[in-house]
Structure formats: structure tokens, C-alpha cells
Design goal:
368 residues, globular, 6-stranded mixed β-sheet, D-Maltodextrin-Binding Protein, domain 2
């Protein structure tokens, strides 16, 4: 009986607990939001480089040029202006390192370096080129240009049949001459001995370049020519080792010869002419666009410089006079007197280089 009561008590307690419990209602599952689809990044097409055009398509080139001129002389002004122009024309693709005023040597040394390929071009007067190109002795004919103006001389040297003939002689020696720069001015004589007539040249100790034709000319006038290196000329004049020298007026001013010379004698015996000479193999190796640009720079610079050469000559002549030198000028008959004395020089030059060169030059000067 006791066991029965305990069993009924347990059953009652169990039913009571069930009756008091709340049913558990499961919450509905929240819908899962779908993640937005990742956008596929746009793939850009690779940039296509436009091909370079003009000078930008060429490899940069640097040329080395030099001269043996005096400070501020025409050759220096010419070379530096060419360098400026060619760099501008080619947007900096063709450039020039230019060394003026004998920085790399004298004219012969510079031309030797050019032919060896150590430098590329030289701006030089014609006298020192004779040892490399014998036909250039045509420029050593005394007084051959003295009766002509700058325009006539320019035609003869740069645009005539003579131009084509003389250029062949340069080419045979691995040189091209791109322009002859001149303004109808000349090499003149400075002296400590007064020269008023052609006979006054007798015994004159005059410094010359190492050019046999120049020496032959002065000997024909009765003078005593003495070749000297350019750096020694001022001191030699100062110390009386030589009486005189001959050069263009700008060169004379650059060397301060008014300090050591008494007379400026307007002999007009040799044209003051500078050549733009370039190593032919180097020029031929340049892209045609560079060749054209260089030639254009040379021509344009020549026009600008030549327009001022007569004024430069006059200004420098006045500086020499203002510095204490007495100016000596001659009548036109002086040219004929010199030519008569120098007849043998004409003959020897014609025999050495071929009379056809002399004839071609004279024909061009007469524009025949």
C-alpha cells in the first residue's frame, strides 16, 4: 500500500510539470541575402605607342668641331652660331661640342685630327689646308680677289663650276667643304716699318704661316718671310725679332697687335676666307636628315655672319687705329704693281696644281 502511494505521488508531480511548461516555437529562419555578384574589372587594351617621327626617330649624334682663330674672330663666331642653330633645328638630337681659339691645336694639327677621325669638323683659313689638299693653293694667288666685291667672290667660291672642281680635290682627301665664309675683306699687314711704296717691302722681316706660296710671295716683294707659330708672334714683334706680320683685322685686334705695331698697311694681298671642313666619312655616315640640317645650319649661319663681316672689319680697323697704329692705304695701281712682282708666284702655283684651276677661278670671278 505504501509503495502504491509513492508511485501515485511521482506520477502526479510529473503531470504537474508538463502542464506548466510552454511550448517552444521555433523562429522561422531569416532569409539569407545573396551577396551581390562581383563586378568583373574592365581590362584596358594595351597602349599602342605612336612611332617617333622626324628627328625624334633618329639616334642622338654629337659632333666635335674646333678652330684656331683669335678670340672673337669670324671663325669662332661662325662655329658657335652653327652649333646653336643645328641643335635648335634637330630638337637637340644633333649637337656640337665646339672648341674655339686653338683649344685643340693649330690649323694643321686640327686638320690632322679631323682626318684621323678624332674630331669631326674644322673651321679654318685656306693657307694651312694646302699641305693636305695641294689644289687649295689657288687661294694663295696674290691679289686674285682684290678687285672684286663679296657677292662676286661668293658666287665664284660657293656656286660656280670652280666650286665643283675644287670640291673634287677635297673629296679625294676625305674632306668636304660645306661653305667658304668671306665678306670681301682681306688679310692686311701690320708693321713697325713704314710702307708707302712697293719698294719699302725690301728687307722687311715679316712673320708668315708655314705656307711656301705665302713665303714665295713676300720674297717676290723683296721681304724676308719668317714662319713662326702663332703663340710666339706677339713676343717676337715686341722684341723686334720680326718687323711685321699679316692677318685679318679681327685677328690683329684679338692678339692686341696695336700694342706692339706702329702701322696698319692695307695690302689686301690674300682674301680673308674661312672654310667649313668636315671629315667626309663622318658626314657620309650621318642620316640624310642630319646632313641636311647641318648644311642648312652652315648656310644660315654664313648669311648672318657674312652680313656683318664688312662692319666687323671696319670696326676692328678703327680699334687698331685708336690703339695707336697709323693707317696706310694705297691707290688701285698698287694691285697691278704687286701682280707684276708676283708673276712668278702665279706661274709656279698654276704649274703645281694645274692651270685649269686658275682659269676656272678667274672665269667664275668674271661670271663668264
Amino acid at each position: 500500500m505504501k509503495k502504491l502511494l509513492i508511485l501515485l505521488l511521482i506520477i502526479g508531480m510529473t503531470l504537474s510539470v508538463v502542464a506548466c511548461s510552454k511550448p517552444v516555437v521555433e523562429a522561422p529562419e531569416a532569409p539569407v541575402a545573396e551577396a551581390p555578384a562581383a563586378e568583373t574589372p574592365a581590362v584596358e587594351a594595351p597602349a599602342v605607342e605612336e612611332p617617333a617621327e622626324g628627328f625624334a626617330a633618329l639616334d642622338p649624334v654629337k659632333l666635335i668641331g674646333a678652330d684656331n682663330a683669335g678670340v672673337g674672330a669670324a671663325a669662332q663666331l661662325y662655329g658657335q652660331l652653327i652649333a646653336k642653330k643645328v641643335e635648335e633645328m634637330t630638337d637637340g638630337q644633333l649637337t656640337i661640342d665646339y672648341f674655339p681659339n686653338s683649344q685643340l691645336g693649330n690649323d694643321q694639327e686640327l686638320q690632322g685630327q679631323m682626318l684621323a677621325g678624332d674630331i669631326d669638323f674644322v673651321i679654318a683659313q685656306t693657307a694651312q689646308t694646302v699641305s693636305f689638299v695641294p689644289e687649295v693653293a689657288i687661294f694663295d694667288l696674290p691679289m686674285v680677289f682684290a678687285k672684286y666685291d663679296a657677292e662676286t667672290i661668293d658666287y665664284a667660291l660657293n656656286n660656280s663650276e670652280f666650286t665643283e672642281m675644287i670640291n673634287e680635290a677635297y673629296k679625294a682627301k676625305n674632306m668636304y667643304v660645306l661653305h667658304y665664309l668671306q665678306g670681301g675683306t682681306y688679310r692686311e699687314t701690320t708693321s713697325n716699318k713704314n710702307i708707302e711704296t712697293i719698294d719699302d717691302f725690301n728687307g722687311l722681316k715679316i712673320r708668315t704661316m708655314e705656307n711656301p706660296n705665302h713665303m714665295a710671295f713676300w720674297k717676290a716683294l723683296g721681304a724676308s718671310p719668317t714662319p713662326l707659330p702663332w703663340p710666339e708672334v706677339y713676343v717676337s714683334l715686341q722684341q723686334g725679332l720680326v718687323d711685321a706680320q699679316e692677318n685679318a683685322t679681327d685677328t690683329n685686334v684679338g692678339a692686341n697687335f696695336q700694342e706692339v705695331q706702329d702701322y696698319l698697311i692695307m695690302t689686301h694681298h690674300i682674301l680673308y676666307c674661312n672654310q667649313f671642313l668636315i671629315n667626309a666619312e663622318k658626314f657620309d655616315s650621318l642620316d640624310p636628315m642630319y646632313q641636311e640640317a647641318l648644311q642648312k645650319a652652315v648656310d644660315e649661319a654664313a648669311v648672318e655672319i657674312e652680313a656683318d663681316l664688312a662692319k666687323i672689319n671696319d670696326d676692328n680697323r678703327q680699334k687698331l687705329v685708336d690703339g695707336g697704329m697709323e693707317l696706310i692705304e694705297f691707290e688701285p695701281s698698287f694691285i697691278d704693281e704687286v701682280l707684276a712682282k708676283a708673276e712668278g708666284v702665279y706661274k709656279s702655283i698654276g704649274e703645281a696644281i694645274g692651270q685649269e684651276y686658275v682659269d676656272a677661278l678667274l672665269k667664275a670671278l668674271e661670271k663668264q
